[in-house]
């Protein structure tokens, strides 16, 4: 079948509008043309997938994620090739009692939103230099003086 990303399977806007059963896996597949410049890296970003996923690029597992509300990224440089690439994402959502509120039962009674399974936020590719800023952390040193310490987490500078 076909699904419109970034809408959850259960949303009518996805073009599907049905629940993902606990016994099912949701599979996404997309061809992506990439022309990566020499000395660069390619990052694959997901703003959110609900709930557990495995990501493959050209048949190579590039990562996985657990959780429905947090963004995550993978460096896919080792798996990408110039030209046509195939991105596959497998998603399962067991609605376990350990998942955040609203996921414990299929018919929540009193919660006003539908279930959310699958890719429900934006997915995008980003070409970066070999050494790039992965994350920034800010800490208040002195609020009264307006002093802030910022630490940058930089990727390895080694070529891919």
TrEMBL record:
Residues covered by the Glycosyl hydrolases family 2 sugar binding domain: 26-95
Any one GO molecular function term: hydrolase activity, hydrolyzing O-glycosyl compounds
Source taxon at top rank: Eukaryota
One Pfam family in the UniProt entry: Glyco_hydro_2_N
Transmembrane spans: none
GO biological process: carbohydrate metabolic process
Family: Belongs to the glycosyl hydrolase 2 family.
Protein name: Glycosyl hydrolases family 2 sugar binding domain-containing protein
């Amino acid at each position: 079948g076909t699904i419109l990303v970034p809408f959850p399977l259960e949303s009518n806007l996805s073009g599907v509008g049905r629940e993902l059963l606990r016994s099912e896996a949701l599979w996404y597949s997309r061809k992506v043309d990439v022309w990566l410049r020499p000395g660069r890296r390619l990052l694959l970003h997901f703003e959110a997938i609900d709930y557990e996923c495995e990501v493959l690029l050209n048949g190579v597992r590039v990562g996985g994620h657990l959780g429905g509300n947090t963004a995550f990224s993978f460096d896919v440089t080792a798996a990408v090739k110039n030209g046509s690439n195939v991105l596959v994402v497998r998603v399962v959502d067991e609605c376990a009692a350990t998942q955040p509120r609203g996921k414990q039962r299929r018919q929540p009674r009193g919660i006003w939103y539908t279930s959310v399974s699958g890719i429900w936020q934006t997915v995008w590719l980003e070409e970066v230099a070999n050494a790039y800023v992965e994350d920034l952390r800010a800490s208040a040193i002195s609020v009264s003086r307006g002093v802030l310490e910022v630490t940058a987490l930089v990727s390895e500078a080694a070529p891919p």
